[in-house]
Amino acid sequence: MRIVRAEVPSPEFSRFLYASVGGDIAWIDRLAWTYDQWRRALSRPGVETWVAYEHGTPAGYVELAANPDGSRSTPGSAGSVEIAYFGLLPAFRGRRIGGHLLSVGVQRAWDLGERWPDLPATQRGWLHTCSKDGEHALGNYQKRGFSVYRTTTDEGAGAGQSGSVARRLHGSHQRVSQDGGGATRTLFARVSDPTTYH
Questions:
Q1: What is the pLDDT of residue 104?
Q2: How far is residue 4's CA from residue 96's CA, in Å, rounded to a whole number?
Q3: What residues in the chain have per-residue pLDDT under 50?
Q4: How far is it, in rounded angstroms, from Cα 181 to Cα 153?
Q5: Can you give the pLDDT at residue 149?
Q6: CA–CA dist 37, 76 (Å, integer)
Q7: What is the pLDDT of residue 171?
Q8: Strand pairing category for 183-190 and 124-130
Q9: Beta bridge partner(s), residue 58
Q10: pLDDT at 74
Q11: Domain total of the chain
Q12: Which CATH number does the domain housing residue 158 bear?
């Protein structure tokens, strides 16, 4: 397996990855985006897409998003980098690819400032997950040095809200219910150097 940065922002390719990874788990927040919305999001300083390839075929991806001034959502410290999206195409799940891809994503989040000299050095990495995520997700994040920052529960979320919860299902292996059931959302943060975890 090779993991390569998609250095040229491509709305078409990023939409393919997003829809392919999230299609069966109800990732919906970016589906209606226009070409220009994709282009603007991907062209922001500190946004990177890292793609895992298995024998030349895309297997999954990690999208990183720098938060240089703390203006995006929590944990809100300058120099933070969010693992905005992370997951595998369905055919590649359960093959022990996700843990390696996440490890590389964490390392690339931590050294993002080296590729973007106008951004501050990474001080914190973070991601969102949800109780409808895959059964190994929490352990996968914790093995890579993430700890729980905050947990919230959405009771009785309707189909629209289930979609908004689903947009942060990094590496989910289960379909998100659209039946109005609630979900527990967890925000993980990591403040230590990734070289201390395997």
A1: 96
A2: 18
A3: 74-75, 156-181, 197-198
A4: 11
A5: 78
A6: 23
A7: 34
A8: antiparallel
A9: 53
A10: 46
A11: 1
A12: 3.40.630.30
Residues 100-129 pLDDT 10s: 999 999 999 999 999 999 999 998 888 877
β partners of residue 2: 53
- Is the distance from CB of 100 to CB of 27 less than 8 angstroms? no
**Is the peptide bond preceding residue 75 cis, with omega within 30 degrees of 0?**
yes
Q: What is the pLDDT of residue 26?
A: 75
Specify the residue for token string 């590729």.
115
Q: Which residues pair with 68 in a beta bridge?
A: none
DSSP-assigned letters across all residues of the chain: -EEEE--S--HHHHHHHHHHHHGGGT--TTTT--HHHHHHHHHSTTEEEEEEEETTEEEEEEEEEEETTS-SSTT--TTEEEEEEEEE-GGGTTSS-HHHHHHHHHHHHHTHHHH-TTSPPP-EEEEEEETTS-TTHHHHHHHTT-EEEEEEEETT--HHHHHHHHTT-TT--SPPP-SS--EEEEEEEE-S-GGG--
In terms of C-beta density within 10 A (0-12 exposed, 13-18 middle, 19 or more buried), how is residue 158 classed?
exposed
**Domain ranges, residue 164:** 2-196
Positive or negative, the CA dihedral 47, 66, 136, 150 is negative
Between CA 166 and CA 133 the distance in angstroms is 9
Beta bridge partners of 81: 66, 125
Q: Among 163, 150, 137, 168, which residue's Cα sits nearest to residue 76? A: 150
